[in-house]
Design brief:
This protein has 4 helices and 29 strands. The protein is mainly beta.
């Protein structure tokens, strides 16, 4: 092609290339493909380019222009506004007032992403919780999951001749990790660390065991008998230390303070015993009108709480032989009593079949703080020393074990397994495990509380394997 032909065609082609060797074909579907980007299903052709819609790109969230920058004298502000609208869309141009800067002089916040509060959250939002959730954009600690309590016991012991009597107290766990159980006329000791069973004593055919209670140090154990005696034994030597009388009939409940042993009986009296003196009884507390079945000293040894079959809860102090408080809101026998280890003067009590309530009292002023209807007979209460929670065991009609948070009284767990009412309860020295006994002649061990150091679910210990063994 000569120079005249190249000028005619308007193309600058290299020498030696003719116009026929170069073909330009127009893409008739280009305009249609671009116009139909919002609904690609209607078009079968596609474009080789993507032109975004700047007005929907939320570019204002990048904070491209935040701080004002000086405008040169004689600058055309209207021109800069039009330029921003053309480059970033009409929304961006109207969101910032005139004179805040120009694209030619960006601020120091260039490409700094900021939280967009203009629309709903999306998976790509900088905050997963949204602007109104109360969480910062920084990594926050996730909420703790609810504590899981195993629903089945990790060990079951057969306890033949374990009596089904609401007014007796036949199970106690010492601070030296030895479990004492009264079975018929005998008391057996089960060492938890070795699973060794030792027969402590046999009262003979004319008497039977009605209550057992370890001292706080765990060296001595007291035994209440059907004939009204109170015996004290050395648990390590398996030797009787002393026998004390005073009651006319069975001694169904015992409670140790640091120095005083209190005993409650069917004869309606509470006797105070002191091993340091020669006399069997140092004082006598008269106030109940029926059998005394619940008895607990406060942790500071200042107050003694007693419950009876007369539906009364009485509180005594060290210096008076008359009760300082008479609490009569229960409508059934009060056997279940527990003092809070976390708050001084806070007492919990549970009523029998006609009452079914757990009630909380302030012994400072005698006021009832709260109460909850459990739906069944309350047989025992235990207050955890590791966490502010309470365990209760129940009889008619559900025979369940329940764990509660205090003071909300929200249920943590409900445990079932006993076929008869759960009359006996004791807690391990580390505060993590409870043992329950029932008229079905079984003792069941449950992991219900966390350890004091790490509030996490308690794992089964190696010395307690799953299975069923015999207490004797």
């Amino acid at each position: 092609m000569d120079s005249s032909e190249r000028r005619k065609s308007g193309l600058n082609l290299p020498a030696g290339m003719s116009g026929t060797s170069l073909r330009l074909e127009t893409f008739s579907g280009s305009y249609r493909a671009i116009s139909n980007l919002s609904s690609p299903s209607k078009s079968t052709s596609c474009s080789d380019r993507f032109i975004p819609c700047r007005s929907s790109s939320r570019l204002h969230t990048f904070g491209l222009i935040e701080k004002a920058s000086p405008v040169k004298e004689g600058g055309n502000e209207a021109y800069f506004r039009l330029l921003k609208q053309e480059l970033f869309g009409s929304d961006f141009g109207s969101s910032s007032p005139a004179g805040q800067g120009s694209p030619m002089s960006p601020s120091k916040n260039m490409l700094r992403f900021k939280t967009d509060h203009s629309g709903p959250n999306s998976p790509y939002s900088p905050s997963l919780f949204g602007p109104d959730s109360g969480f910062s954009n920084e990594a926050s600690t996730p909420p703790k999951p609810p504590r899981k309590v195993p629903k089945t016991p990790h060990k079951v012991l057969d306890a033949p001749s374990l009596q089904d009597d609401f007014y007796l107290n036949l199970v106690d766990w010492s601070s030296q990790n030895v479990l004492a159980v009264g079975l018929g006329t005998c008391v057996y000791l089960w060492t938890a660390s070795t699973s060794k069973v030792t027969k402590l004593c046999d009262l003979g055919p004319s008497d039977s065991v009605c209550s057992v209670q370890w001292t706080r140090e765990g060296s001595y154990i007291s035994i209440g008998t059907h004939l009204g005696q109170v015996q004290v034994w050395d648990g390590t030597q398996c030797k009787k230390v002393r026998t004390m009388g005073g009651h006319q009939t069975r001694t169904g409940v015992l409670a140790w303070s640091s120095r005083i042993l209190s005993s409650g009986s069917r004869d309606r009296n509470i006797l105070q015993h002191d091993l340091r003196v020669s006399t069997d009884v140092v004082s006598k507390l008269v106030g109940h009108k029926s059998e005394v079945c619940g008895l607990k000293w406060s942790h500071d040894d200042r107050e003694l709480a007693s419950g009876g079959n007369d539906n009364q809860l009485l509180v005594w102090n060290q210096h008076s032989q008359q009760p300082v408080l008479k609490l009569t809101e229960h409508t059934a026998a009060v056997k279940a009593i527990a003092w809070s280890p976390h708050q001084s003067g806070l007492l919990a009590s549970g009523g029998g079949t006609a009452d079914r309530c757990i009630r909380f009292w302030s012994t400072t002023n005698g006021n009832q703080l709260n109460h909850v209807d459990t739906g069944s007979q309350v047989c025992n209460l235990g207050w955890s020393k590791n966490v502010n929670e309470i365990v209760s065991t129940h009889g008619y009609s559900q025979n369940q074990i329940m764990v509660w948070k205090y003071p909300s009284m929200a249920k943590v767990a409900t445990l079932t397994g006993h076929s008869l009412r759960v009359l006996y309860l004791a807690m391990s020295p580390d505060g993590q495990t409870i043992v329950t006994g029932a008229g079905d002649e079984t003792l069941r061990f449950w992991n219900v509380f966390p350890s004091m150091k790490a509030p996490a679910p308690v794992k089964d210990t190696g010395v307690w394997s799953l299975g069923r063994t015999h207490i004797r």
